[in-house]
């Protein structure tokens, strides 16, 4: 017997696995992951499936995190929210907006679950998960021990964390604690929000605009299979930027510090003439070049071949190597594209 993975990945790839185990009980989740980790059976832990590409049938079991719960603790200057890993991220953003808890409204409409947020250090429109993270609760599957580590100990970087580095493949994130404010302070540094007036704009205004911009650029995974942004925005030195500007004076970048800038990967892909480019059933989205979509019959192989062709073309044109954001999952586990 095998279970279909199509409902469990937002690319809508029609792969299967030995068994999908969906768990809403926290202790059962911990026990199951620990037992599978120490068995001969391959295991993938999934939340919303919005950051994974299954390239072939997976020869093991998939544990789907479905734990729910939000615990609110009021503090002197805001609230501390402890949120179970299986909660939907966008629904959490809406919950906070309704209760006047501020800090994550810029992160509206990011697909996936709360437990996945620290792994990637998700971010959008000038805000990163790291800026609101208080701590992360996880189980070390090697030892079977549960820990809660501070935001500083998560070693957050751009789309990076300790869970993608030292704890990669060894940690089951079970909950996160967010430190949010009850005092509204808008973050309007990113271009699509910069025209808003800080002394007039509301959190609802920011939320609505972020949803509008994202909906215009990013297809709904329910309608068109995708994993959102497929590539990270590359970080380069200011010297490398100056060289590129001689040929591409309109290159889009965001200053990080005196020595580094972040380039817009979408601009690079668009400039390389790849919007609409197809491999099999996979295509570069015609409205947002950072998104690879499943036109209906794409395979994981199509997605990866298209991604590799994008990487090659951008490297040839700009001497910059794009890095994929999603996990690439082969028959026996994760692989590097």
TrEMBL record:
What does the record give as cofactor? FAD
Which cellular components does GO assign to this protein? cytosol
Gene3D superfamilies given in the database record? 3.30.465.10, UDP-N-acetylenolpyruvoylglucosamine reductase, C-terminal domain (3.90.78.10), Uridine Diphospho-n-acetylenolpyruvylglucosamine Reductase, domain 2 (3.30.43.10)
| Protein localization | Cytoplasm
What GO biological process terms are annotated to this protein in UniProt?
cell division; cell wall organization; peptidoglycan biosynthetic process; regulation of cell shape
Q: What is its EC number?
A: 1.3.1.98
Q: Its principal location?
A: cytoplasm
Pathway named in the protein's UniProt entry: Cell wall biogenesis; peptidoglycan biosynthesis
Report domain FAD-binding PCMH-type positions: 10-183
Active site: which residues? 159, 229, 325
Q: Which domain of life is it from?
A: Bacteria
Instruction: Kindly state which reaction or reactions the protein catalyses.
Output: UDP-N-acetyl-alpha-D-muramate + NADP(+) = UDP-N-acetyl-3-O-(1-carboxyvinyl)-alpha-D-glucosamine + NADPH + H(+)
Q: Which InterPro entries match?
A: FAD-bd_PCMH, FAD-bd_PCMH-like_sf, FAD-bd_PCMH_sub1, FAD-bd_PCMH_sub2, MurB, MurB_C, MurB_C_sf, Oxid_FAD_bind_N
Q: Name one GO molecular function term.
A: UDP-N-acetylmuramate dehydrogenase activity
Alphabetic keyword roster: Cell cycle, Cell division, Cell shape, Cell wall biogenesis/degradation, Cytoplasm, FAD, Flavoprotein, NADP, Oxidoreductase, Peptidoglycan synthesis
Query: According to its UniProt entry, what is the function of this protein?
Result: Cell wall formation.
Q: Which HAMAP family match?
A: MurB
Family per record: Belongs to the MurB family.
Q: Which NCBIfam families does the UniProt record give?
A: murB, PRK00046.1, PRK13903.1
Q: What name does this protein carry?
A: UDP-N-acetylenolpyruvoylglucosamine reductase
From which source organism is this entry?
Shewanella gaetbuli
Organism lineage string: Bacteria, Pseudomonadati, Pseudomonadota, Gammaproteobacteria, Alteromonadales
Question: Gene encoding this chain?
Answer: murB
């Amino acid at each position: 017997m095998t279970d279909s993975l199509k409902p469990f990945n937002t690319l809508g790839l029609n792969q299967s696995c030995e068994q999908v185990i969906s768990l809403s009980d926290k202790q059962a989740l911990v026990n199951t992951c620990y037992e599978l980790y120490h068995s001969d059976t391959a295991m993938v832990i999934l939340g919303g499936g919005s950051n994974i590409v299954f390239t072939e049938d997976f020869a093991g079991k998939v544990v789907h995190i479905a734990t729910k719960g939000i615990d609110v603790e009021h503090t002197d200057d805001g609230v501390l929210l402890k949120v179970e890993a299986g909660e939907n991220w966008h629904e959490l953003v809406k919950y906070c907006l309704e209760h006047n808890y501020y800090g994550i409204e810029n992160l509206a409409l990011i697909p996936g679950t709360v437990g996945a947020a620290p792994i990637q250090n998700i971010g959008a429109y000038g805000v990163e998960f790291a800026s609101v993270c208080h701590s992360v609760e996880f189980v070390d599957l090697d030892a079977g021990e549960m820990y809660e580590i501070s935001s500083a100990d998560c070693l957050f970087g751009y789309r990076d964390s300790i869970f993608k580095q030292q704890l990669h493949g060894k940690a089951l994130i079970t909950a996160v604690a967010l430190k949010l404010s009850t005092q509204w302070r808008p973050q309007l540094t990113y271009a699509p929000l910069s025209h808003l007036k800080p002394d007039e704009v509301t959190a609802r205004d920011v939320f609505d605009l972020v949803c509008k911009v994202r909906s215009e650029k990013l297809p709904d995974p329910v309608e068109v299979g995708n994993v959102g942004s497929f590539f990270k925005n590359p970080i380069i030195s200011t010297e490398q930027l100056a060289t590129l500007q001689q040929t591409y004076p309109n290159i889009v970048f965001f200053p990080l510090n005196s020595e580094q800038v972040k380039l817009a990967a979408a601009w690079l892909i668009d400039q390389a003439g790849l919007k609409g480019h197809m491999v099999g059933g996979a295509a570069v989205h015609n409205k947002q070049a950072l998104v690879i979509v499943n036109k209906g019959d794409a395979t994981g192989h199509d997605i990866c071949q298209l991604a590799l062709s994008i990487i090659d073309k951008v490297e040839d044109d700009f001497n910059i190597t794009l890095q994929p954001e999603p996990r690439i999952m082969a028959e026996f586990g994760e692989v590097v594209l």
